Inverse folding.
């Protein structure tokens, strides 16, 4: 049996929140590139060696930036996917959570690449993580509604 969606005008906010995630990725790339250049770690090396990072603060910061970026890309698809699905039923709430997730990921990046190192990522991780889990539950509920609708 066919199923039709009627998308709210508010879904544009969901699309804007999803788009913000793409710009956060660009920020990650720029910050990682900055630290790569400062560290002298050349391509194709993904990370500075343990020996290099323990001797050179720039190499250590590059590793932190690279790990933050990798973690971001690991979480990008599930977060944006949840946002787009949840936004079908809860456009304004999903958009707010999606924007919160993006903001939290920026805080995560700057915390991780601060002098605090890995410990600096904690607040951003919790902030983005709460938004992410809420989006996942909202997406699951939206999926349930679609499956059980007549």
């Amino acid at each position: 049996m066919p199923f039709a969606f009627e998308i709210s005008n508010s879904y544009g906010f969901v699309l804007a929140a999803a788009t913000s995630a793409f710009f956060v990725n660009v920020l990650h790339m720029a910050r990682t590139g900055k630290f790569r250049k400062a560290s002298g770690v050349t391509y194709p090396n993904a990370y500075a060696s343990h020996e290099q990072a323990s001797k050179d603060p720039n190499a250590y910061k590059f590793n932190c930036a690279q790990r933050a970026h990798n973690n971001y890309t690991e979480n990008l698809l599930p977060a944006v996917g949840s946002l787009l699905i949840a936004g079908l039923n809860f456009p304004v709430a999903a958009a707010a959570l999606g924007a919160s997730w993006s903001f939290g990921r920026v805080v995560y990046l700057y915390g991780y690449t601060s002098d605090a190192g890995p410990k600096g990522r904690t607040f951003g991780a919790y902030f983005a993580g709460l938004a992410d889990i809420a989006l996942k539950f909202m997406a699951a509920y939206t999926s349930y509604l679609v499956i059980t609708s007549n």
Notes: The longest helix spans residues 57-89. The chain has one domain: 11-148.
